[in-house]
Amino acid sequence: MSAAAAVGCSGFKAMATVRSGRSGHKPPHVLTVAGSDSGAGAGIQADMKACGALGAYCSTVITAVTAQNTVGVQGVHVVPEDFVAEQLRSVLSDMDVDVVKTGMLPSISIVKMLCRSLKEFPVRALVVDPVMVSTSGDVLASPTILAGFREELLPMADIVTPNLKEASALLGGISLKTIADMQSAAKSIHTLGPRTVLVKGGDLPDTMDAVDIFFDGKEFHELHGERISTRNTHGTGCTLASCIAAELAKGSSMLPAIQAAKTFVGNALRYSKDIVIGRGPQGPFDHLFQLKSHIFNLNSNDHHFNPDDLFLYAVTDSRMNKKWGRSITNAIGAAIEGGATIIQLREKEAHTREFVESATACMEICRSHGVPLLINDRIDVALACDADGVHVGQSDMPVSMARSLLGPNKIIGVSCKTPIQAQKAYLDGANYIGCGGVFPTTTKENNPTVGLDGLKTICLASKLPVVAIGGISVGNAGDVMGTGVPNLKGVAVVSSLFDRECVSAETQRLRSVLMDATSAVKELS
Ligand SMILES: Nc1ncnc2c1ncn2[C@@H]1O[C@H](COP(=O)(O)OP(=O)(O)OP(=O)(O)O)[C@@H](O)[C@H]1O
Ligand SMILES: Cc1ncc(CO)c(N)n1
Ligand SMILES: [Mg+2]
Questions:
Q1: What is the percentage of the chain residues whose pLDDT exceeds 90?
Q2: What is the pLDDT of residues 126-161, one digit of tens each?
Q3: CA 487 to CA 482: how far, in whole Å?
Q4: Residues less than 5 Å from ion ligand 3, measured at CB
Q5: Contact (Cβ atoms closer than 8 angstroms) between residue 503 and residue 514
Q6: Which residues are catalytic?
Q7: pTM score, two decimals?
Q8: What distance in Å separates the CA atoms of residue 409 and residue 303, rounded to the nearest whole number?
Q9: How far is the CA of 85 from the centre of ligand 2 (A)?
Q10: Before 490, cis peptide (omega within 30)?
């Protein structure tokens, strides 16, 4: 059984904070067992930077020292097996390691000794990057380690992350040229014993996207990312595996960990695409870009998106506020008081200055209540007031562009009327979709409705959580939630809250209708 299967990956978070014997805070901890890269783009150096950037502590057991630069690998000095064992003992006997990540393991005896150490000191998850050949084509481990991988290390792994050449080597040298080849390779490698497999497509020829294939033992997931045109891709593989390890150590389950890792690599490449380090063909990238770019800054107060936030989604409308003589801050304050779980500012007429000022004031209110605030359409306003994200329509800025401007941590929602739009939203990196208009509404002109049947069809096609919108009120919200589709997480409303005299009382009424409908659905299922 794999290391994490014994305790269950999803239980990480609860355990991570209580394990330390001493009082105080134990950071998530990744141990990397890998080789040193003197050029510092890959290997141990990449692992430490990647884990640090994602907020995990990284200890290091060095298996080999390489003389390496942007031209290639000039030399390899293997650390004696006994001394690798001693390093492992030093770290594992003293520190509470959550996740072990392996990189360059230069000999079969080191592979076998590592497996013995992991049996003596079990950890919660094992991430195996089966480093054999770098993208530059240099051989980093002798083919004799393949037997050690197949027989001992892979059966203990929670995930193994071969690139195309490594996947081919693990399977006896078969050729891998297409996504279909990658899928069948992932399935075959799974039979060697790892709990899950990620075949990385960074080196797949003739692809517009950087596509990786994840196989969890049952299903395939195709992970797409924009292919960044740059020479600085040295160390992408090490970084991806370390990011997965860091996310697992922080408490994530596997698929979200991989998605976060892929987003990190894509953003790092994008940020570093023009940096020049070294004279050779393949340069390192900047793992610490988040320190330099506010756009990618992970240290902001961003609200971590939880699909349940979509339960009662209040969307403001300046005309209604004017009609009832309320300020926007009073309107959202009342909605939050009544139980709104997320707010969107939809200001189609406001001047930019006024919009930024009121959005900043709303942000303060929302943050103090732990309720996320999104801005409709205006990425610039969302950035200016450090909102939690944006909601865009099909004719607003494309989701992929909004994602690269806002960075990986902001929430992006997109309005979808068709299954194709819903699928695209997922591939482009949105967090949720808004589906509608479900019923006719006066808030939005010329808005064809999809009805409850259309809503259901789109929910079933969507891999993202869905919030229903359009003509929803206390009278029909029960029917909407009563459709019982699992990824329908809530309803978004405008006039049924804000075109009323008492916003907080209306919000409360709607909340109780939604609660009743969801408990009725739960009872039925
Ligand atoms: N140019 C690129 N743009 C975007 N993503 C990329 C690019 N190149 C690689 N990736 C992504 O980086 C990750 C690592 O994949 P890759 O196939 O390059 O691994 P690797 O060959 O083991 O890396 P290396 O040997 O350079 O450390 C994958 O998620 C892949 O899709
Ligand atoms: C030390 C080391 N580990 C892994 C890789 C794979 O990129 C590399 N080039 N060097
Ligand atoms: Mg590569």
A1: 80
A2: 999 999 977 677 888 888 999 999 999 999 999 999
A3: 12
A4: 135, 202
A5: no
A6: 200, 233, 235-238
A7: 0.63
A8: 8
A9: 20
A10: no
State how beta strands 99-102 and 466-469 pair: unpaired
Tokens of 85: 């064992």
Please give the torsion angle defined by the CA atoms of residues 18, 24, 27 and 30, in that order, rounded to the nearest 10 degrees: -70
Cα separation of 513 and 271, whole Å? 47
Q: Whose CA is nearest to atom 12 of ligand 1?
A: 236
User: 22 is written with which tokens?
Assistant: 């001493």
Residues 6 or more apart in contact with residue 214 via CB below 8 angstroms:
186, 196, 197, 198, 220, 221, 222, 223, 255, 258
Q: Give Cβ neighbours of residue 56 (< 8 Å, ≥ 6 apart).
A: 27, 28, 29, 30, 245, 246, 249, 250
| Contact yes or no for 229/274 (Cβ under 8 A) | no
What tokens does 311 get? Answer: 């339960």
Which residue would you say has higher pLDDT here, 11 or 78?
78
Using a 6 Å cutoff on CB, does residue 42 contact ligand 2? yes
Q: For position 315, what pLDDT does the model report? A: 97
- The pLDDT score that the predictor gives to residue 301 is 63
Q: By three-state DSSP, how is residue 292 classified?
A: helix
DSSP-derived secondary structure for 111-165: HHHHHHHHHHS--SEEEE---SB-TT--B-S-TTHHHHIIIIIGGG-SEE---HH
Q: Tell me what the mean pLDDT of segment 29-54 comes to.
A: 98
Supply the pLDDT for residue 206. Answer: 73
CA pair distance 121, 232, nearest whole angstrom: 37
Q: What is the pLDDT of residue 15?
A: 36
Does residue 35's CB lie within 6 angstroms of at least one atom of ligand 2?
yes
Task: Name beta bridge partners: 436.
Answer: 469
What's the DSSP call for residue 173?
S
